[in-house]
Amino acid sequence: MSMNVTLSREDVVRLCERVEGAQKRACAIPKLTDEYPGMTMGDGYAVQFELRRRFLEQGHRQVGWKAGLTSKAKMQQMGVSVPSIGFLTDRMARPENSAISTADLVHPRVECEVAFVMKKTLAGPGCTRADVLAATDYVLPAVEIIDSRFSGFKFDLESVVADNGSSARFVGGGRARYAEELDLRTLGVVMEKNGEIVTMGASAAVLGHPAEAIAMLVNILAELGEELPAGSFVMSGGITEAIAVKPGDSIIARFQELGSVSMRFVD
Ligand code: 0L1
Ligand code: MG
């Protein structure tokens, strides 16, 4: 993966303002590569890191990271072939069983993920699944509410990375468990929308093992000059494809061994 930054600082700031405006106003914009066809992954991360810098300056607190596009189902759904990462802040967290407003979102979708809470700092390159498991305090089930700011969810990886991996909200819940008590490859998950099963899968869909996605995230962070700090909350990526939600919908994600996570959507 190239982390080559080709955009000028002015262009990074311009694109960041465009993404930040779309996030705050919940309005869709065309993908950034329409105007900057030569954008690299490094440019995408430069925009994402500028967005994080601004959010932190505005008083948001970073609580962790997310790995995205880590399953074949998601890559096929979105037509991309490489995973990505994005940051998570306290403003994106929502309580379990809560009513989540869609008024401030463009076209939300939900996906079931295994989340990791780290007890040791991890640094790449060369971070492995075993390193991740040794540094994990516990795992818990989570639902990510993604919301691409690009019209019709039409984008490429560079644009998605600039848009912080489409991250919008997340809900952790269920039962926290020690990773060593579980086989994290074979956890089944079923998602119900309004009482009907809409999608299901097994955790091996995420790069063969969700801890692989965390290792990948740590190795991408290393390319960007960062570590994964102890205490981080890290989402390992959707196990199934993402399901669209609208006001009035209730979602329950039932995870084998980890309990369930519920929420409903309102105007
Ligand atoms: O969490 C993710 O898998 C990120 C997805 C980014 C692309 C999308 O908006 O579906
Ligand atoms: Mg996700």
Characterize this entry briefly.
The protein has 267 residues and is an alpha+beta fold. Helix content is 25%, strand content 28%. It has a single domain, classed as Fumarylacetoacetate hydrolase, domain 2 (Alpha-Beta Complex), CATH 3.90.850.
Radius of gyration: 17 Å
CATH class: Alpha Beta
Class by alpha and beta content: alpha+beta
The total count of strands amounts to 12
Distance between the termini: 40 Å
- Compute the number of structural domains: 1
> Which percent bin holds the helix content?
25-40%
Number of helices: 6
Q: Which topology does CATH recognise?
A: Fumarylacetoacetate hydrolase, domain 2
Ligand set: hexanedioic acid, magnesium ion
Overall CATH architecture: Alpha-Beta Complex
Q: What sequence of helices (H) and strands (E) makes up the elements?
A: HHEHEEEHEHEEEHEEEE
CATH superfamily: Fumarylacetoacetase-like, C-terminal domain
How does the overall form come out from the CA principal axes? globular
Please tell me the overall pLDDT: 96
Sheet-strand content, in percent, reads 25-35%
Biggest sheet character:
7 strands, mixed
Low confidence ranges: none
